[in-house]
Amino acid sequence: MSSGLLQQRCSGADMNPPKRPRTADSGAETGKEERNTVDVSIILPVYNASCWLDECLQAILQQDFTGSMELSVFDDASTDDSRKVVESWKERLETRGISVVISGHSSAQPRGVGYAKNKAVSQSCGKYLCFQDADDIMLPERVCLQYEVSLLHPNSLIGCRVQRFPEGSTERYTRWINTVSQDQLITQVYTSHGPTVIMPTWFCSRNWFLKVGPFDEGGKGVPEDLLFFYQSLRLGGGLSRVDQCLLIYRYHEKATTHSVTEETIWKLRVEFLQERVLSQWESFTIWNAGKQGRKLYRCLSPTNQKKVKAFCDVDENKIQKGFYTYEESKERPKPKIPVLHYKDASAPFIICVKLDMTGGVMEENLNSLLLKEGIDFYHFN
Length: 381
Hints:
Elements: H1 4-9, H2 32-35, E1 40-46, H3 50-61, E2 69-76, H4 82-95, E3 98-105, H5 113-122, E4 128-131, E5 137-138, H6 142-152, E6 156-165, H7 171-179, H8 184-187, E7 203-205, H9 206-212, H10 224-234, E8 238-250, H11 262-276, E9 284-287, H12 291-299, H13 302-305, E10 308-313, H14 316-321, E11 323-325, E12 336-341, E13 349-351, H15 361-368, E14 377-379
Parallel strand pairs: 1-2, 1-4, 2-3, 6-8, 9-10, 9-13, 10-12, 13-14
Antiparallel strand pairs: 4-7, 5-8, 11-12
Helix pairs in contact: 3-4
C-alpha cells in the first residue's frame, strides 16, 4: 500500500503545508537545554515496521500544528531496515522544522513495547507527548487538535476517533471506540475492550506521564497500556476525546496487542472493578447467570462473593433452576445464589453481557429499568 491511503482519507486537506524554517532548537544534535522549548514530542517505538514507516512518517511531516515538534524514535532491535527508513526521513522532517531523535539497541531479542516507549519518552523533551504506533497514520489535524485539548486538561489522557484499516476490521470494537460518550470514558473502563481511550490515540502532558509512569517493561504479553491507564485513573487522572477522526488505525495479525491473553486482561479488570466499584457497594446483582457471570463470581474475593445477592437473566431454563451453587467453595454448606428474571432483580448491577452482541435486546432490557450507568450499573464485558 502506498501513501495514497492518506491522500484518499484526507482529501481536501492541505497535504503540503508551508515549510517552517529550521531553528537552532530543531536539530537532533541540539543541546538538551535549547531543545526544552519543544511543545510536542511524537513518541514512536519501532520494531520491524519498515513496510509501514513511510506512510507513518509522511503523515507526521504533514501535520498542520504551528508550534514546535520533535520526533523521538526508539528502535527495539528490529531485524529489518526500520532504522534505515527512519534515518532516510530525518532531513525532510528537520527541514520542515521537526527535530528528530533516533536511538535503539541491537540485542538478540526486543525488550518490548513498554521498554521502547519509555526510552523514546526519556530521550525526548516536549512539554506534551503524542504517542504514535509505527503501523498507524495520523491525520494532519491530530497534533494541533489534541494539543489544544491537553492545554485545558493537563492531567488527562486525550484520545480521538479513528478509522479502522482495512475497512470493516473489528467492527464492534471500532464502533465502540468512536461512539462511547464522555461519561462512558469513565464508566466503561472495566469492559473487555480495554482502555476507553485507546493507546494508539494517546496524547498527554509530560508532567502527567512522569507522575503516572513509566510503562511496565515486562515485555511480550504484558498489557502495558491497560496498566498505565488504570494507574492514571487511580491517581485522579481524567479522560477526554477529540470527537473527530484523527488516526487511521491499522489492523493486522502481527500487532503486539495479539500477544496479550484474554485471561491476563480479565484478571486486571476484576482487580480494578473490585478496587473501584465493589469495595463501595454493600451488595449487588450479576446480570448473566451463564458462563461469564459465573466466572466473574468465582474470581471475586470472598468478601465480594458474599455481596452477590443474586444473578439475573432472561433465560427461563436458568431462572427455573432457581439458584447457582458454587461447587468449588470450601464453605459448608456451599453458597447458593438465587437466579432471577432481570425484572425481578434489584440494582446495582454488574453487567456481564457483551455490548452490541444481542441485536440491541440486552440494551433495551437495561434501558427499560431506567437506571443510571456509573451509579446503578457498570458494564464488565
